[in-house]
Amino acid sequence: MIRVVLADDQALVRAGFRVLLETEDGFDVVGEASDGAGAVALAVEHRPDVVVMDIRMPGVDGLEATRQITANRELETVKVLVLTTFDVDEYVYEALRAGASGFLLKDIEPVELLRALHVIASGEALLAPTVTRRLISEFVGRPENRRIDTTAVQQITDREREVLGLVAGGLSNDEIAAQLVISTATARTHVSRIMTKIGARDRAQLVVLAYESGLVTPRGKGRA
């Protein structure tokens, strides 16, 4: 059972998501919030698997709420899925940097939302590929966005750079293993070590940090 909190300032949107999830097996909507403060409070109270988070809400917005949830060590198992009507939004990019595990547009098909919740609840990350590329192109090149410790970058091995490039390209551990002719367990170990070295909370944040650091370029080629 995947336990979900819905955070959106539009009651109709929340109602639509609730109906969708409650008609499907395996989902339990444990709370609804109309702003970020409410989302954080519900995350603390219920410890859901996923918070479906709108970005633009009154008071505490989805960006700040995401920061508060991901910064709380007691909520480390709580994942945030960002939904927005804007396909290029600096706030969405900042939410990913803050630790959101996924990002989708609100105009997705219902089946895509269900799949996203399954993916994120299982510990993987999910980003809309075309939107991610546009976000990277728009924001990563800015000097003020390069905040990763250069010492951490230097600790990445050549093999790990190769793996990181594939992660940034959206490949799963199984796909990385097949491409590099290694076991899935080895691929998973590489990804885990990279995340530890550069301080990424999950694969979504790992992708953002990979581009920020220059380890991966928007074309997916690692830099020397």
Automatic annotation (TrEMBL):
Residues 149-214 form the HTH luxR-type domain. SMART domains: HTH_LUXR, REC. It holds the Pfam family GerE. Residues 3-121 form the Response regulatory domain. InterPro entries: CheY-like_superfamily (IPR011006), NreC/VraR/RcsB-like_REC (IPR058245), Sig_transdc_resp-reg_C-effctor (IPR016032), Sig_transdc_resp-reg_receiver (IPR001789), Tscrpt_reg_LuxR_C (IPR000792), WalR-like (IPR039420). Keywords: DNA-binding, Phosphoprotein, Transcription, Transcription regulation. The modification 4-aspartylphosphate is found at D54. PROSITE patterns: HTH_LUXR_2 (PS50043), RESPONSE_REGULATORY (PS50110). PANTHER family: TRANSCRIPTIONAL REGULATORY PROTEIN NARL-RELATED (PTHR43214:SF24), TWO-COMPONENT RESPONSE REGULATOR (PTHR43214). This is Response regulator transcription factor.
